[in-house]
């Protein structure tokens, strides 16, 4: 059963019903469910299905290709010596097929492009010289090596330039999709626990599939991450090595950003990593953005120092914070620190990140989904030295003459606004108005797990968004 992915399935079926041949690329990070989506959508409708082999020689790739042709009902008399010959065999299979639409699925496409194999040239010749001229071929390819797909397919300056008819980027699950998924598995975690799981694993279905009944979320995290044989203990390096060829620069940038939660400018990254400025750095940053690991954001209202790159991948951030330099060898590290300062300091920042990953749900809860707006965090420094600055978790600067200043609080109970906290919140409002000189209405908006306690100074809040709002579809 597929959870979510309604839009993606719909697009795939539209390509199947099309009256002309289609070339579809499904891409996204490792473990996000690309293969599962394609196979569940088309089920037994494949004329040919094949998956590349990791780190295999050309001869081994061609042998696997022929094995898949045989599985599709084709008799092979002679092994091909090149990809041009291999695609000629595929053309023969398509000619023999009596299906109305010939669905060709090639998984892990980048692995087929071994050194000096000229695989891309053969793919170009197959599509441009033959398949695209028919009206009955649906070619669906995917792979986790996203940088390869972007640079060899999307940015191809040869025969494949602008030949892809459909690009489907498969995003990680939202909180709503994670909740649906674990319910389908028979698990009964509360939304508070699901939220914490999301802070750790993000919306990667494969990671969530490893959760077990009878264990708390903390116990599951310990088993998967901190146990000596934990299935996600070594996932970090495997993740980046599977996505990017020559991954060292990618990992260096990710690790550097992981230690700078506020983000770094391009110049800051160059200074910290010692990576030379130029086109290669641009490509690495673009690849990481395409995969959803990092984001480049404006630093806020009329800031002069440009934008900042931030690491936003939940799994990578958790690994870098708690595992890469964890020398304790405590297999129950998360359980032992569940109520300690280490976890409590982390959940605040992690909750902010999850909120940014669910801006649409926040705007829907505020009933401003259709209002044009700009969303960003804002750090205001006090240049006079007489007062103090302000850190605003999220600014929703709206086109309807209104600004929401959002304060985020993660707690296992209702959040209380006491006198000191109210003074801090008022300072943020004052500093924002002083900086922007806006004539817009400013609304203090609280985004919390369990809402605001209606005592103390709660009436200074104009809007409330809770954890339940983040779980909306």
Tell me briefly what this model is.
This protein has 473 residues and is of the alpha/beta class. Helices cover 44% and strands 16% of the residues. The longest helix is centred in the C-terminal third of the chain and has 18 residues, at 419-436.
Characterization of this structure:
The chain has 473 residues and is of the alpha/beta class. 44% of the residues lie in helices and 16% in strands. Strand 6 and strand 7 form a beta hairpin. It has 21 helices and twelve strands.
Give me the oligomer status.
Answer: single chain
- Kindly state the number of beta strands: 12
Helix content: 40-55%
CA-CA gap between termini? 18 Å
- Strand arrangement, largest sheet? 2-3-4-1-5
Q: What characteristics describe this protein?
A:
single chain; 473 residues; alpha/beta; five-stranded parallel beta sheet; five-stranded mixed beta sheet; 21 helices
């Amino acid at each position: 059963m597929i959870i979510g992915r309604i839009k993606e399935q719909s697009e795939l079926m539209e390509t199947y019903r099309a009256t002309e041949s289609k070339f579809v690329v499904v891409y996204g990070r490792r473990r996000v469910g690309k293969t599962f989506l394609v196979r569940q959508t088309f089920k037994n409708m494949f004329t040919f299905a094949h998956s590349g082999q990791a780190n295999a020689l050309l001869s081994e790739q061609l042998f696997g290709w022929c094995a898949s042709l045989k599985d599709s009902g084709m008799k092979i008399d002679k092994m091909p010596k090149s990809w041009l010959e291999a695609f000629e065999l595929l053309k023969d299979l398509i000619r023999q097929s009596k299906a109305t639409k010939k669905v060709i699925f090639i998984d892990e496409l980048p692995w087929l492009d071994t050194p000096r194999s000229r695989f891309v040239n053969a793919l170009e010749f197959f599509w441009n010289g033959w398949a695209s001229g028919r009206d009955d071929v649906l070619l669906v390819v995917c792979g986790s090596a996203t940088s390869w797909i972007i640079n060899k397919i999307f940015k191809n300056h040869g025969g494949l330039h602008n030949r892809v008819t459909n690009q489907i980027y498969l995003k990680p699950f939202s909180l709503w999709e994670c909740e649906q998924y674990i319910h389908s598995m028979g698990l009964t975690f509360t939304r508070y626990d699901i939220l914490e799981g999301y802070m750790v694993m993000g919306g990667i279905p494969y990671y969530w599939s490893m959760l077990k009944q009878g264990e708390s979320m903390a116990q599951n995290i310990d088993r998967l991450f901190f146990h000596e044989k934990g299935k996600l203990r070594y996932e970090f390096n495997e993740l980046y090595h599977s996505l990017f060829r020559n991954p060292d620069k990618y990992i260096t940038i990710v690790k550097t950003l992981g230690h700078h939660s506020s983000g770094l400018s391009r110049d800051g990254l160059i200074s910290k990593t010692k990576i030379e400025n130029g086109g290669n750095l641009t490509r690495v940053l673009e690849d990481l953005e395409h995969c959803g690991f990092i984001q480049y954001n404006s630093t806020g209202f009329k800031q002069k120092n440009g934008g900042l790159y931030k690491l936003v991948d939940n799994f990578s951030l958790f690994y870098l914070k708690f595992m890469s330099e964890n020398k304790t060898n405590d297999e129950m590290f998360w359980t032992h620190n569940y109520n300690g300062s280490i976890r409590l300091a982390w959940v605040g920042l992690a909750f902010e990140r999850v909120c940014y990953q669910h801006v649409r749900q926040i705007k829907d809860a505020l009933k401003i989904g259709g209002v044009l707006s700009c969303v960003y965090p804002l750090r205001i420094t006090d240049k006079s030295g007489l007062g103090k600055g302000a850190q605003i978790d999220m600014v929703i600067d709206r086109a309807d003459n209104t600004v929401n200043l959002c304060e985020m609080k993660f707690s296992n109970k209702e959040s209380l606004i006491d006198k000191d906290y109210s003074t801090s919140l008022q300072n943020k409002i004052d500093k924002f108005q002083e900086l922007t000189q806006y004539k817009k209405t400013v609304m203090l908006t609280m985004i919390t797990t369990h809402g605001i306690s209606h005592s103390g100074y709660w009436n200074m809040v104009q809007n409330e968004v809770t954890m339940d709002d983040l779980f909306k579809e």
